[in-house]
Design goal:
Helix content is 17%, strand content 40%. By secondary structure, the protein is α+β, with helices and mostly antiparallel strands. The protein has a single domain, classed as Lipocalin. The protein has a 9-stranded antiparallel beta sheet with strand order 6-5-4-3-2-1-9-8-7. Strand 4 and strand 5 form a beta hairpin.
């Protein structure tokens, strides 16, 4: 019984250590490089971040609007099927937070589309260690690394 109590007392310490290790904010460029897909539910978004400092982004919109609120994009055709852009990327830290900047980026989703420019976004690790880039974390949209 005494040995069981000792083991139970060690569980919180082990849990704290695992949480602290899992929450490490250090992310290397090699960790960021890879293939990401967006989980926004419509179309297919693929972001390829290469180790050589370049990225490519492609998506297929399909034949239905990306989001219900598309009235502010009347010039955008809902028949669009392909979209692609590419450019350079770099990893940097802002007050200890890892961030990635994509140069000449233009989002595919109509509600997030702006002219090509810089997209500076935090690099996050999920609770399970998966690297993701938030598109709109308020509604749970991310590029998730595979």
């Amino acid at each position: 019984m005494q040995q069981q109590m000792k083991a139970i007392k060690q569980v919180p310490t082990l849990l704290v250590i695992l949480v602290l290790v899992g929450c490490s904010r250090r992310i290397a460029p090699a960790d960021v490089a890879g293939r990401y897909t967006a989980n926004r539910g419509n179309g297919v978004d693929v972001l390829e971040i290469r180790k050589d400092g370049l990225y490519s982004y492609t998506c297929k919109l399909g034949k239905t609007p990306d989001f219900e609120n598309t009235t502010h994009w009347p010039q955008a055709s809902i028949e669009a099927t392909d979209f692609r852009n590419e450019g350079r990327w770099n990893l940097h830290y802002d007050e200890g937070e890892p961030r990635i900047t994509l140069d000449h980026f233009q989002a595919c989703a109509r509600d997030y589309r702006r002219p090509p420019g810089l997209w500076d976004v935090p690099v996050e690790r999920s609770l399970f260690g998966t690297i993701r880039l938030p598109i709109d974390s308020d509604v749970g949209f991310y590029f998730v690394k595979h």
